[in-house]
Amino acid sequence: MLSLKDYKNVIDLKYVPKKVLVLSDSEKSALCDELLGTLLEERNEIAAFSYPYKVKRDLIWGYMNQRLPNPVSARFLEQQDRLFWAETLENGVIDSERFDYKDGIALWQGDITRLKADCIVNAANSSLLGCFIPHHKCIDNVIHSRAGVQVRLDCSKIMGLQGESEPAGCAKITLAYNLPSKYIIHTVGPMIALKPTEEDARLLRGCYVSCLNLAKEMGLKSIAFCCISTGVFGYPNDEAAAVAVGAVKHWLMETGYDIKVIFDVFLDKDRILYEDVLKNTR
Is the pLDDT of residue 193 over 90? Predict the structure, then answer.
């Protein structure tokens, strides 16, 4: 599998902070019109923009989900980034520096795409190209959709160089583009058919260790994990939480690397599980 050294020169990994940007509804609507014009032209469809802003924005979301990782113009990226970054700021940025850390670990419940951290972790699929199902609510879709088309383009370059699917337990990194975090680390967790095996647990631990190793290699100082392999991948939430916390605590103790780790959960049941596991795992 490719190492960071193998692919870091085929994608841009230089983080550049973005400035505060506020757009009016009319400005956002105009940006939607231009983006839709390009997306519809790619699909050989006729543009019609008599829709309200939110309807147009949903159309952009769905079309981008279905879009193959083909090149886009600099103008398209400029307009997309203005719209997406303004929306990110409107949604509200959560600064992970303000969390309550115990032994370098914090638990937070909320939308991971709002977190300002050095990197967030995306639970990817083996193609590493994001979710192609329009408006799907999986974390892979949400992260790609809010970050921008550049993430799929970067992942396509990495996968083209690798020449084969991404195996479970490994990790790759891209810029986060229009998210508050600097980077996204993409990892593929094991998919569970009936109940997790020892091999599944090993692969899931590998996801957390690979992400932390990559963050360390990049010199990053904070990382936010989603609940890898739960949901559609079928790993039982309680067992996944135990593996996650155990892997992270062991890595921190073994390496001594100074990094803040956030376990980001979305569901109440996961928050309760992680609170219990964090309290009882040594």
Answer: no
Locate 162 and state its tokens: 């690798």
- What DSSP character marks residue 102? B
Which are the contacts of 189, defined by CB distance < 8 A and separation ≥ 6?
Answer: 123, 168, 169, 203, 204, 207, 228, 229, 233, 235
Look up residue 280 and give its two tokens.
Answer: 């009882």
pLDDT digits (tens, 9 = 90+) for 128-137: 999 999 999 9
Distance CA 279, CA 282 (A): 8
Looking at the DSSP bridge assignments, the partners of residue 172 are 186
Backbone angles phi, psi at 22, to 5 degrees: -125, 125
- Return the closest-CA partner of residue 145 out of 65, 37, 225: 65
The mean pLDDT of 219-233, rounded to a whole number, is 95
Strands across the sheet containing 260-265: 105-109, 260-265, 222-225, 119-124, 183-188, 171-175
pLDDT score for 48 = 63
- 106 pairs with which residues across the strands? 262
Structure-token match 């956030």, residue found: 262
153 secondary structure, DSSP code? H
Q: What's the pLDDT band for 280 if we cut at 50, 70, 90?
A: confident
If one counts every other C-beta atom within 10 angstroms of the C-beta of residue 255, the result is 13
The predicted pLDDT at position 252 comes to: 98
Round to the nearest angstrom and report the end-to-end CA distance of the chain. Answer: 32
